[in-house]
């Protein structure tokens, strides 16, 4: 059975939602990492292998996958987009439909699992800043238009995302916050051109966007641009799991916290938030603790009224025959590299089934902790920061605190729209 994206995506484009009308059925999925050859499998795409992987994913009761092609293979020259590569991607979307899975497609990869993938026309003697060079930006926009044209008619398409954690590329492509805004606006507009209105156009960033002092990808860019907000709350950000322990409340409530933080930065109090990446990387989360981490993470996030869904990272372990990955990348899958379901897969599947059988209906968070920071002090809201630790203290003691920005802490109409009755400030 295909879970139609129409209702889910449509709610993301709604500007206001009555308090008594919660976001429809939560979505639960996984980021698809091919078992055979990792993303290098795009060099010799094998539909039989993909069909096998997708059947395993669907067998867990998940309803969608997020998929990634490689930018150099899609667009090896600035003015050449390979039809064969686009057709491969469309075929993968169709194979997912056969398995009963909806699909979000990321366009510009970009960054995947510690590797960066650039077309040669952006590198070496031909170096172009991918965020600021007008011709490079125009080429990426054309790639997103092309993907939109190719995929818009697929009924199981959730939407298109600009790429995976593009802010990982800033080290080699210096950019300002204003330039990031122009880049995102340009690509999102191009992405939207050929998509039906009920499909999503989104972008993603890793946690530096929320916690990194003066990082050029800002919380506002994540929370204002695109049809919903995506968050990637990783337990290694700010050394969270090592700082507090793998079984700590700080770790088990991290995705919930990220969702509430994203809600605070949104203009629309009802803007949906998608926990688009979260996972159990060893040794930060030992294998023995991974099932409980998955259960707690998903259940706690489901207590957020604006949650769109949770997409686990990732489907399959990286095979150890492939070299030079950070150790944690080899163990992140729900399935091992032989295709066997791991205990974390069983825990996630059971938790999803329970939440579908008895869907949560979160009450408003009546107390909010005020976040007062500047772009240069954003780290206060990350692991180790005073704000983060106070929010977690309140949560551990049984409260369900919302996050509210200092600029809106006295806005009665806004607070009422979120159901907030009391605001408290850091001690």
UniProtKB/TrEMBL annotation:
The keyword Hydrolase applies. It comes from the Bacteria. Pfam families: Cellulase (PF00150). GO terms for biological process: polysaccharide catabolic process. Keywords: Glycosidase, Hydrolase. One of its GO terms (molecular function) is hydrolase activity, hydrolyzing O-glycosyl compounds. The keyword Metal-binding does not apply. Belongs to the glycosyl hydrolase 5 (cellulase A) family. This is Uncharacterized protein. It comes from Streptomyces lincolnensis.
